[in-house]
Amino acid sequence: MKPFTSDSIVLAIESSCDETSAAVYEGATLKSNIISSQLVHTDFGGIVPELASRAHIQNIAPVVQAALRDAGLGMRAIAAIAVTQQPGLAGSLTVGANFAKGLAVRYGLPIVPVNHIEGHIFSAFIENEDIHFPFLALVVSGGHTSLFLVESFEQYSVIGSTRDDAAGEAFDKIAKLLGLGYPGGIQVDTLAREGNPKAIAFPRGMMREDHFDFSFSGLKTAVRLYVQEALRQNVVLSPEAVRDICASAQEAIAEVLVHKTMKAVQRFGVRDIVVAGGVAANSRLRSLLSEQAARHNVHVFIPSMKFCTDNAAMIGCIGREKLLRNPLHSYDALTFRVGSNALRAKYRP
Known about the structure:
With 349 residues, this protein is α/β, with parallel strands linked by helices. The chain has helices at 49-71, 90-107, 116-121, 167-177, 184-192, 217-232, 239-268, 283-295, 305-308, 312-325; strands at residues 9-14, 19-26, 29-37, 80-86, 111-115, 135-140, 145-152, 155-161, 272-276, 299-301, 346-347. A six-stranded mixed sheet has the order 10-9-6-7-8-11.
């Protein structure tokens, strides 16, 4: 087995949901990051787990080959593999993990299992080395909405999570109610730019509570009742009305996320904030958080759009840090299992 150094080459694989992705790092330099999105789910208005697993089986080998080709490297140059272990769809995770284990056996490589949320937490480091510990990480996606206090690459804890729907799930369900298609977050964001965010006073769940937890089920219900009332009165929602609903709902989600984050900034005295996950691409969340952070002289780091979605680059980023900080033989075992568990309240990798 090759010794692992700061210049070693890492292959990373991500397959937690509906993106098949592979990336290659040469030292700290990202050489390639291939993402294959599954369009098959569009017709169903959401992710179909069985279809996702089948698509990963078809895509995993070509995606890994493309990542190696773009990096100009072969498997013989790889010193270690990082792969998503949890959370996610069991079938999807199994495809990526088993493929990675097969490569590890074939080429005698150590393999680092990485928590998908952990990848999001440190995804901003892909493009920026100026983030200072401790910092806050707001991870917002279709399945997760959590705030983390991050003290180092090896020490962090959950300080708040959603108690019901995640922010991204709320976006998708609101879009489905309005007949906008899937994925819904992009559709809502686009229409909201031409709508009035003050048109409808949708609820801001738990915004005034002293804790840092979130709740978006009430907002989703409020939008549903608003649409149902219009239908009951035989009112056809005009394009303008749909834009106003999108803008008002998006404003409610963004305000809650930003309020809780800025309250945590004051509580824990941090100066840097990382926002990651699919919802980090939302234009209103980005602008509102940037405005509030500027008022408090706090720095906000948001990955580029390509690193907000599920991607292997973020898995390789933290996987590489683990390899540099722990004995290489601790990653020899191929016995780890995939699962749906998110990061717990007190997590120490």
